[in-house]
What we know:
The protein has 124 residues and is an alpha/beta fold. The protein has one domain (3-102): STAS domain (Transcription Regulator spoIIAA, 2-Layer Sandwich), CATH 3.30.750.24. 40% of the residues lie in helices and 26% in strands. It has 4 helices and 7 strands. It has helices at residues 24-39, 57-72, 84-92, 105-113; strands at 3-8, 11-16, 20-22, 44-48, 52-55, 76-80, 100-102. The protein has a 5-stranded mixed sheet, sandwiched between helices. Helix 3 (84-92) links the parallel strand 6 and strand 7 (100-102). Helix 1 runs parallel beside helix 2 (57-72). The longest helix has 16 residues, at 24-39. The radius of gyration is 14 Å and the shape is globular. It starts with a strand and ends in an 11-residue tail after the last helix.
Amino acid sequence: MDLSLRKIGQTLVVSFGDRVNLEGDTSLLFKEKLKSLIGDGHLHVIMDLSNVGFVDSQGLGALISCLKVLRQSEGSLTVTNLSESVEAVLRITRLIRVFDVLPTVEDALAAATRRPVPAVGSEA
């Protein structure tokens, strides 16, 4: 699986270099890679799913797992550029309400710039 990474400010944009289905072993590998990136300190992630043709329950589980880790670290996960089939799966499972879903990476980056930044030395 070929992932493309772009760091823009405090946000990491992750996209798939090739057309993939987020299922089975691909989902497990994706989850491992994304959790590794989170472990490296990337707490605000935009997932560009434009090259994802299909997502199954394992793919959803990988996304949910990463979302959970990011939220526990006060991070964020935004998904963008959903294909019709991926959007349909998110709607049917009602996960469209769980994820921050925006039409494009540009929309997600604009939303990220409006995200409040904690003051240095402030307590949460």
